[in-house]
Amino acid sequence: MFKILHAQFIAPGIKRFVIEAPRIAKKQRPGQFVIIRVNETGERIPLTIEKSDPAKGTVNIVVQSIGKTTNLLNSLETGDSILDMVGPLGKPSEIENFGTVVVIGGGVGTAMAYPTASAMKRIGNRVITIIGGRNKDLVLLESEMREVSDTVFVTTDDGSYADKGLVTDKLRQLIENGTRIDLVLAVGPIPMMRAVADMTRKERIKTMVSLNPIMIDGTGMCGGCRVLVEGKSEFACVDGPEFDAHRVDFSILVQRNAMYREAEKRSMEDYKHEVESKKTAAPAAEVACALEAKK
Amino acid sequence: MSTPPTPKTPVKKSSNPIPNKERIKMPRQHMPEALPQVRNKQFTEVNLGYSAELARQEALRCIECAKPSCTKDCPVGVKVKEFVQLIVDGDFMGAAAKIREDNVLPAITGRVCPQEDHCEGACLLCNKGESLGIGYLERFVADYEQQHFDVTTIVKAPPTGKKVAIVGSGPSGLTAAGDLVQKGHQVHVFEALHEIGGVLVYGIPEFRLPKKIIREQVDIMRAMGVEFETDVVVGRTVTIDELMEEEGYDAVFVGTGAGLPQFMGIPGEHLNGVYSANEFLTRINLMHAYEFPKYDEPMVDFRGKNVAVIGGGNTALDAIRSSLRLGAGHAFILYRRSEAEMPARIEEVKHAKEEGVEFQVLAAPLEFLDDGKGWLRAARCQKMELGEPDSSGRRRPVPIVGSEYEIPLAVAIMAIGTTANPIIQTTTPGLATTKRGYIQADDTTQKTSRRGVFAGGDIVTGGATVILAMGAGRRAATSIHEYLTSGEW
Predict the structure, then answer these.
(1) Residue B272, helix vs strand vs coil
(2) In B222-349, at which residue ranges do the beta strands (DSSP E only) sit?
(3) Is B298 on the interface with A (CB under 8 A)?
């Protein structure tokens, strides 16, 4: 059991958990992830690590409610526990003094990009960060990113905050302005990472993306997370999660991530129904208790 | 290397009243089984187990060889003749204790061990008809013990004050843990997944080895004093060096098992509907995907569909029999050699055929074809014929030119073996590996190139069987004990 020491929504549908996991906290390096299982009947899903505190033995994860498991997870509060959490998994990001590094975070991907941005800055890189979200609420970790970046650009799809547009619009501007870029790291939704890869391929800028395919064990045993990298099968859990963006077959990634869409929909509907019926059952139970007390 | 002293048992006169020449005429007692047309729709156990009466009848068939080759051919050296005689006597707990002297997981080996390659293959009754049902008897005794287990009967050596870390809770790790705890060492088992048992849990389906059996065997080990910690990937969560330097372990046994699943490298392997056997079986066994939506882990809908498993080992048969139970309309094995070369246990092949699995032997896929939406539609296959024997001693499959054919498929499961998992090797400096990336370990002592570190099972040999891994765990326990007591490497 892994105790939740603190849980708080940081944006609508996005929650930060501080979890007691001393072994993971001690070993976590930027770019790595954990796999969690909420309860006995739960599935195993990979989640990004925002940061960890080895002294306190805690690990922070940032979770966006999408399907049943993430919704269930985000219903947990301070003091609750997660049944299983294993990690840190995957290869850490390659941290070197490249020169100028552009870190691009989309949505919750920003949480995964944050520790890498921070390490890149510490080792002496000039770090330009671009973070984006659909709207103002979904721009995450802006102040944290400002602390570890030389420059931060923010974009929102709807223009409700900062610059209207996509993170790739900002990247294009940087390239067109003649900014020297030695490395791009992009973490976020697949279409965003794919668009970044297409843009930097032409410019021959080395680009890394952090992939999040369907995964079970996270140790290389099952092969479910295989991605096609220049025609070769690689496993995101042990060979990744970061890959050279210009070698990744993004359409296969999209296709494989859609494999269980029907089942995921059904799980989510069942879960919503369960939550609804609990909500309506709860007041009735309270009344019953009150009646019991009166007797 | 000296072997540990085995307790001397006085030579007991047999209480079997039947003369030897009559015993060899007695037929082997059949294992009661669930009906094929019932069991192929459910995940409950196929073999139902001997009754005490059947067990005693079968035990009476043992001809009590002076030099039993069954024990000699057993990787862990179970004293078959002696435990079988105890069954004849009706002393089932005595029989269980006798097995436990050499085998800490009898309820598991009694179910999944390929006895025909070991004890039963060596049984002299084979020359006269059918071998003694040693596996069935072992299972009977182990199940009896489970129902009558008494924690207070556990005898342990006095504490040695030494700490041993076991990496991986599969058959080799559990065996080493069981042997070492009995010798008085403090034993701590680390498991990467959320359940104890390794391949026994994620690889072998419920209908062949119920999870309840594994849990009960593990509970016995807990009662013996073995500590278990799940959710630890040694190499990532903690390294072997940290275990020894910071956590005070005096020795480490690495039994991390088979590694990464192999694919054929043919076009279309990334299509939705193409699985590795490891993933498919893990979803079914560890994650209970067959109980979706009660359990959250999903599985592709198999109902009424064509499903093929590529491969001919036990894993392949476990996968195809599981597919039938998920409702596959048409389930077949695609194997590139002939049935004679199949590495699977004879009983599994028999069970699979009874349940309706079709065997397409001497055939292999060349390509998986797309339905235009990213899902598997069909496989283009090629027929084979057998040529000269290859390095494995089995006749090599040779493609027949112009024999290509197409079979419609919704699901294809690759069960063609594994390659070494590199996590431990790449995070443990100085740990020597083989050319193929497995950990180098001595055949008898299981010692690696690192002082205090031992290894055994599939991470040393590549994919093998439960009992061979257990044999390695047993040898490792013996030499770990020797190392810890002598201090000599």
Answers:
(1) strand
(2) 227-229, 251-254, 260-261, 274-276, 306-310, 330-335
(3) yes
Q: How far apart are CA A270 and CA A281, in angstroms?
A: 16
B232/A218 touch (CB, cutoff 8 Å), yes or no? no
Q: Which of A88, A219, A262 is closest, CB to CB, to B192?
A: A219
Distance CA A190, CA A197 (A): 10
Instruction: Tell me if B297 and A44 make a contact (CB, 8 A cut-off).
Output: yes
For every residue of chain A, which 3-state class applies, written as one string?
CEEEEEEEEEECCEEEEEEECHHHHHHCCCCCEEEEECCCCCCCEEEEEEEEECCCCEEEEEEECCCHHHHHHHCCCCCCEECEEEEEECCCCCCCCCCEEEEEEECCHHHHHHHHHHHHHHCCCEEEEEEEECCHHHCCCHHHHHHHCCEEEEEECCCCCCEECCHHHHHHHHHHCCCCCCEEEEECCHHHHHHHHHHHHHHCCCEEEECCCCCCCCCCCCCCCEEEECCEEEECCCCCCEEEHHHECHHHHHHHHCCCHHHHHHHHHHHHHHHHHHHHHHHHHHHHHHHHHHC
- Considering only residues 224 to 243 of chain B, which have any Cβ-Cβ distance to chain A shorter than 8 Å? 230-233, 236-238
d(CA B161, CA B182) in angstroms, rounded, equals: 13
pTM: 0.92
For residue A26, is pLDDT > 80? yes
* Continuous segment of H or E residues that includes residue B376: strand B376-389
The pLDDT tens digits of the residues spanning B447-456 come to 999 999 999 9
* Contact status of B292 with chain A (Cβ, < 8 Å): yes
Residue B347 has pLDDT above 50, yes or no: yes
- Its ipTM equals 0.91
Contact B423 A238 (CB under 8 A): yes
Strands A242-244, A207-210: pairing is: antiparallel
Cβ-defined contact of B230 to A84 (cutoff 8 Å): yes
CB nearest to A219's CB, from B233, B279, B374: B233
> Which ranges constitute the DSSP H helices of B331-465?
346-355, 423-427, 458-461
Tell me the average pLDDT of chain A. 93
H or E stretch covering B290? none
- B266 Cβ under 8 Å from any chain A Cβ: no
The pLDDT-based confidence of B264 (bands split at 50, 70, 90) is very high
**In B186-303, which ranges are continuous DSSP H helix?**
199-202, 211-224, 240-245, 277-285
- Please, which residues bridge with residue A45 across strands? A36
B423:A23 CB<8 A = no
Whether residue A223 and residue B282 make contact (CB cut-off 8 A), yes or no, is no
β-pair type (B274-276, A226-229): unpaired
Min Cα distance A214 → chain B (Å) is: 11
Place of tokens 């991907």: A109
Q: Name the B residues in 444-473 with CB < 8 Å from any A CB.
A: none
Structure confidence by residue, pLDDT tens digits, A258-269: 999 999 999 999
**Average pLDDT, stretch B340-351?**
91
Taking a C-beta distance cutoff of 8 angstroms, is the pair B198, B466 a contact? no
Task: Kindly report, residue by residue over A148-206, the tens digit of the pLDDT.
Answer: 999 999 999 999 999 999 999 999 999 999 999 999 999 999 999 999 999 999 999 99
Does the pLDDT of residue B135 top 50, yes or no?
A: yes
Predicted local distance difference test score (pLDDT) of residue A256: 93
| pLDDT tens profile A99-119 | 999 999 998 999 999 999 999
Rounded Cα gap, residues A185 and A94, in angstroms: 11
Average pLDDT over residues B86-96: 96
Tokens in use for A98? 């490249």
